[in-house]
Amino acid sequence: MRTSSNPAFRNLPTSPGGYARFGDAPAGMAGAGGMFGGGGSPMPTAAADDRPLTVDDVVQKTALNVVLALAVGVATAWSGIYALGLLGFVVGLVLALIIIFKQSTNKWLVLGYSAFEGMALGAITGVFQNMATSPSGSSFAGIGVQAVLGTLGVFIGMLVVYKTGAIRVTPRLTKMVIGAAIGVIVLMLANLVGSFFVPGGLGLRDGGALAIIFSLVCIAIGAFMLMLDFDQADQAVKAGVPARFAWYLAFGFMTTLVWLYIEILRLLSYFRQ
């Protein structure tokens, strides 16, 4: 497998045999070409968690986590208890580190991560929505819905780009995206440290022209990370990893979607100030 920009997708175990990829024939069509690595052999009748991974497994688990995060986020935003955002980020980070370093396929850990990240994102969105109730902040009305639609649009757009082969995932592209991601993270940290000494730090998050450009770059990198994640999930399905790793892959998609949502929300806030 190729190395992904998403740490959650690295070093997945493999098993013999290739299986349907994203965009290939449905899993139920046993006679379809390209579905089985063993020349059309029937799917093994193993336990549900040990059978080979399918596209449906990844789609269903990812959709479940997205819906859960969205539901918790909406509930948090409406509750007005925005202090829950800090709790969500801290617990979400702890769960993410556990899942990544243990390569855990425990569905409760993954669902917990999505729930707490939804809580954190809902609190941030709620703060903007609350600003919209005052005359000076009326321009922030509906920013959460727009950020959700923007994130969904990027997801669908990159999926189309990946499936049509308009941009192919190559080792060179993977290295470029990983390098760019590391670069922006370093700049974010430098900006954070700089803000302790100079108001606005490096000016990457102050809402000015440079901040807008930086957010656009972050969104672009996040979009390419998402395409690399599609490819990594595709490779996992093709390699026939156990079905239980659908939860791990869903977690990987969620980390990228969280990145995209935050950056899109931030960019929208700049334009609305």
Automatic annotation (TrEMBL):
Keywords: Membrane, Transmembrane, Transmembrane helix. Pfam families: BaxI_1. The keyword Transport does not apply. The chain crosses the membrane at residues 80-101, 108-128, 140-161, 173-197, 209-230, 242-262. InterPro entries: BaxI_1-like. This is Putative YccA/Bax inhibitor family protein.
